[in-house]
Design goal:
Blueprint lengths: L1 E7 L3 H12 L5 E6 L1 H4 L3 E6 L6 E5 L10 E5 L3 H13 L3 E8 L8 E6 L5 E6 L4
């Protein structure tokens, strides 16, 4: 059900160092990092087993608390991602990224984003090529 989760942080460098140290005993390390230039505003990194970031920390476009917590739900195909986004908007969410490829994560990353009524950034994502 949950593909990954992300926490907004106020000091990215400090939080990256903190979680690098804290998660190392569990066998987790930074496995992906994205820059503001890649994403249009977000800077962050994902921790997890090799090639699979499940826990993200990062800054938002204008600060750490832009969109509360980020939760990505696993979809079974791209049509489900599209339907999730349409349903979220119909239910009153604000658009935060239309369905589409996000190659800065990996070539097949297909996701859609919305801001829920409490300000959390919710996403549906599908990882395989279609």
């Amino acid at each position: 059900m949950i593909d990954h989760i992300g926490l907004p942080v106020s000091d990215y460098a400090r939080s990256r160092a903190f979680y690098t140290q804290v998660l190392a005993p569990l066998g987790y390390a930074v496995v992906m990092e994205v820059t503001r230039e890649m994403t249009g505003g977000y800077e962050g990194c994902g921790f997890g087993p090799p090639q699979r970031p499940h826990f993200w920390i990062g800054t938002g476009r204008g600060g750490a608390s832009d969109h509360g917590v980020h939760i990505a739900f696993a979809a079974q195909n791209r049509k489900q991602v599209d339907a999730f986004h349409a349903a979220a908007l119909a239910a009153g969410a604000r658009d935060n990224g239309a369905p589409g490829l996000r190659p800065h994560y990996h070539p097949s990353y297909y996701g859609a984003f919305a801001i829920d009524p409490d300000g959390h950034n919710i996403e549906a994502v599908y990882h395989l090529p279609e």
